[in-house]
From TrEMBL, chains A, B:
InterPro entries in alphabetical order: ArsR-like_HTH, HTH_ArsR_DNA-bd_dom, HTH_MetalResp_TranReg, WH-like_DNA-bd_sf, WH_DNA-bd_sf
Domain of life assignment: Bacteria
Lyase found in the keyword field: no
PANTHER family recorded: ARSENICAL RESISTANCE OPERON REPRESSOR, TRANSCRIPTIONAL REGULATOR, ARSR FAMILY
This protein's record includes keyword DNA-binding: yes
Pfam families named in the record: HTH_5 (PF01022)
Residue ranges of domain HTH arsR-type in the record: 1-98
Keyword annotations: DNA-binding, Transcription, Transcription regulation
CDD domains in the record: HTH_ARSR
Name by which UniProt lists this protein: Metalloregulator ArsR/SmtB family transcription factor
Length: 98, 98
């Protein structure tokens, strides 16, 4: 695996290697229609709004979440391509010999 | 997701959220018979032996690698249960409504 690719993948993994972010990711995934806004998540986890917003911003930048503004609210959903990329990383590569 | 579970999973993800560890994991996975010893890995990545040993120890503690001593050498292989656990984490849970 080339160093540049390993660094990119490590960055994505770091973005979810945090208990609060994992909880947020699962809340969003299991929400009705697979989307949630900051207020919902803040209430569910008993966290402050800036804390939740910061975590969501980091995961969006890493390609794990998609965000969409509708009126005054921003809705977050899991980016299926981003999550698939992470799963793909963790799949065993072909061996050079058996 | 309960906090205790989120913390445990985050710990495993942190153990692989590092470019050198990802490179080591892929080298081991793609080695003949899926196992490698420290000397092989040191040479392939151009790293010092204590650095490689430290990374392997961390990944073994996280349940991602298995180690077996044969004679004077220690062989490392990917622990399939550990890797499957990580993949399982990243699978989308059932939604509460569609």
């Amino acid at each position: 695996m080339e160093r540049a690719r390993a660094e990119r993948i490590a960055g994505v993994l770091k973005a979810i290697a945090d208990p609060t972010r994992l909880q947020l990711l699962h809340l969003i995934q299991s929400a009705p229609d697979g989307e949630a806004c900051v207020g919902d998540l803040t209430e569910r986890l008993g966290l402050r709004q800036p804390t939740v917003s910061h975590h969501l911003k980091t995961m969006t930048a890493a390609g794990l979440l998609a965000r969409e503004r509708r009126g005054t609210w921003v809705w977050y959903s899991v980016d299926p391509d981003g999550m698939e990329a992470v799963r793909e990383i963790l799949r065993a590569p072909a061996r050079t010999a058996s």
